[in-house]
């Protein structure tokens, strides 16, 4: 009979094979990365443009420029775009980050000529129609106002501003008035600067045949397109961290308080970053972490608490997130510092480290098991400016880290004195 009190033996993967994309350069200079993997007759096209929040001249400019690509072009109305993509079973995703914009199309191979026709028009000839823009801006304002009533939203904004300051792109918090300053000419200006063939990379993933490659080369690779033809300048911003330790964002009708604790941390190119990920996972990065075991399971202060490093260009933000009843705020924060003290003073038991290793290695395996997840991984490496050895380096870091290294990393990079405390909720009398 199976004894469920005994944990089954978990064998860590001996070697994690992660295929690299094939790289080609098309006649107009656009690099094309091909990940031909998978059995389903589906292909994903990721078009990357360098230019995001770091390059915009006013708030929300990058976000709405990318969002509006699907709302009308010289050839297709917004309704026609939606109808055609839906008819052919295609899916379009638009997103904007700190330094990149992403235009992603999922398409069945048999309908690729039809869906690529729409995709090309979206990328090359958007018109940013005023009526559609007005509707989308109004919807976003309503969502912003809803979010502004939530304690977790207020806490996160307060923490970001406290750590980075008003002059840093991260600390420049969007206000309602910023939405009213968005108009078609603002978006067209950003589009003209950054959406061009000299600023573009393309990833193909899924079941990619030579026919697909030829179609991409015909539409995007033969002739230059766009107006700017200049790479965006790399801009470095210095955070201006507030000297204050504790911040409070009041929400008078809040049923409970959101607690955020955070500070500047390592960027992804720092030599300690990969092993720091192990430390952060152990502290609060999975369900069996120390913060969860102590603060959720033993103390019952919260239903969930997590820790992680949010990556930004040239820096990272170490954050601890949770929500709790007002009366538990102070004891919860005390327990967080207690767990940091333990990491700085005591060696992690081998059994606990083995559990974290197995969790992280298993998570890595899941992240690289499909063509699309592989594309996500390589796009992350590309946009982060990381070495092609990043995947194997990450595996090695997890496998080789020692309890002594964890203690040393905690002493060096988890500074309790600089850890900001943000509480958002009802003021306690």
Class inferred from helices and paired strands = alpha+beta
Number of helices: 15
Number-wise, the strands total 11
Question: What percentage of the residues does DSSP assign to strands (E)?
Answer: 15-25%
The level-1 CATH class of the largest domain: Alpha Beta
Mean pLDDT across all residues, rounded? Answer: 93
Q: How widely separated are the two ends?
A: 57 Å
As a whole number of angstroms, the C-alpha radius of gyration is 24 Å
Helix content: 40-55%
Contiguous uncertain segments of 5+ residues: none
Q: Give the SSE order as H and E letters.
A: EEEHHEEHHHHHEHEEHHEEHHHHHE
What is this entry, summarized?
This protein has 429 residues and is α+β, with helices and mostly antiparallel strands. The chain has helices at 61-67, 78-87, 112-124, 130-147, 151-164, 176-180, 184-194, 210-221, 273-284, 290-298, 329-345, 350-367, 371-384, 390-400, 403-413; strands at residues 22-25, 31-36, 42-50, 91-96, 100-108, 200-206, 246-250, 257-265, 305-312, 315-324, 420-425. 42% of the residues lie in helices and 18% in strands.
Give an overview of the whole structure.
The chain has about 425 residues and is an alpha+beta fold. The chain has 15 helices and 11 strands. The protein has helices at about 60-65, 80-85, 110-125, 130-145, 150-165, 175-180, 185-195, 210-220, 275-285, 290-300, 330-345, 350-365, 370-385, 390-400, 405-415, and strands spanning about 20-25, 30-35, 40-50, 90-95, 100-110, 200-205, 245-250, 255-265, 305-310, 315-325, 420-425. The mean pLDDT is about 95.
